[in-house]
Amino acid sequence: MADVDNCMRPVVEAFRRHGLPEESISKLLFIHLGVVMMPLKRIAEAFEDLKELGMCSKETNFLYAFRVMCSLKKETWRRKVALYQSFGVSEDVLIRAFKTQPTMLLASEEAIKKKVRFFQDTLKLDLSRVIQQPMVLSVSLENCVKPRCAVLSILIRKGKA
Question: Does the record's keyword annotation contain Transit peptide (predicted)?
Answer without folding.
Answer: yes
